[in-house]
Amino acid sequence: MPRDRFDREIDYLRISLTDRCNLRCIYCMPETGTAHAEPSDALGCDEIERIVVAAAGIGFRKVRLTGGEPTLRPDLLEIVERIARVPGIDDVAMTTNGILLPGLATALRRAGLRRVNVHLDSLDPERVARVMRRGTLERILAGIEAAERAGFHPVKVNTVVVAGENDGDVVDLARLTVERDWHVRFIELMPLGGGECARIATTRYVSNFGTRARIEAALGPLEPVASSHPSDEARNFRLAGARGVVGFISPVSEPFCGTCNRMRLTSDGRFHLCLLKDDEQDVIGALRQGADAARLGEILRNAVLAKPTGHALDVGVSTTVRSMHHLGG
Ligand code: SAM
Ligand code: SF4
Questions:
Q1: Could you tell me the distance, in angstroms and rounded to a whole number, from the CA of residue 25 to the centre of ligand 1?
Q2: Domain range for residue 58?
Q3: Helix H or strand E segment including 184
Q4: Which amino acids bring their CB within 6 angstroms of ligand 2?
Q5: Among 34, 66, 107, 286, which is disulfide-ready with 95 (CB 3.0 to 4.6 Å)?
Q6: Which residues of the chain have pLDDT under 50?
Q7: Beta strand residue intervals within 146-182, DSSP E
């Protein structure tokens, strides 16, 4: 398993399959005017498979597909199928807004996808329309239900908390875990890309200390639950008698850089070394010049060795070039 300069084991590759999305969450993508990579600049299914084979060859074990919205890729099922059978890869997961899951969930499961995280910011239809824009609560819930029917258990629900928008909805979302085995995870806003979305992320930030206090005031104490893996970015809890889990992902108030085990691959073929920094290393050039698995493995190993640690959000520094819809969280 590759180790970086800070002795972190890096075995988790997050692949952004596209920078496009069918929604426009206010903290992630502007309503209009986003320039997208040309489809010819996006990694193809063969190229993604070659990178995953190389990654598995140097000890990567887990892959997550993200975006933009990964379900917009017409070749998604083939990508999942090919990655899931790469020897050494024992977990293939996906993060999605759920809108297209009703038509895809069963086939994705069959193709070898093991887990899905669905993004949902509120249980109020108007607030979903305002915060996630272009999406409806009904369609996202239908996506979650389709995932459950297809056998994805437990479904993880990701909620980004935005002051003045959905910060009052966290109690209802947490309450879902009483009856359902879902993991509902509250994510702190991060500013990426320097534009309007970054401004919203900075000015509408809500600390998870506040979110947790609000939930406990309404629903009672949250008891800690052991994480399944030391690099799990969520701190997990359970309400008394609940089937599911309430998680807090707190990159701003409680950074978890010390246990980071990730490498990110952008849809235009760059290894992005830290979510909250600009450092990248090109791999698409080598792929298109015919690099073999050994060479690709060497490029990835060098990217791992160059991984920085410690973000600088507290002094207002984050990515300037990439936004969240390029990097996939
Ligand atoms: N479209 C998919 C989705 O929404 O789940 C996958 C890509 S999206 C960029 C991945 C995750 O990033 C989502 O769970 C979303 O909640 C989270 N996210 C997006 N923008 C964010 C921001 N500015 N700060 C924190 N999390 C963010
Ligand atoms: Fe799309 Fe996901 Fe970004 Fe929302 S968070 S705009 S669903 S990529």
A1: 8
A2: 12-327
A3: strand 183-187
A4: 21, 23-25, 28-29, 67-69, 97, 119, 132, 324-325
A5: 66
A6: none
A7: 156-160
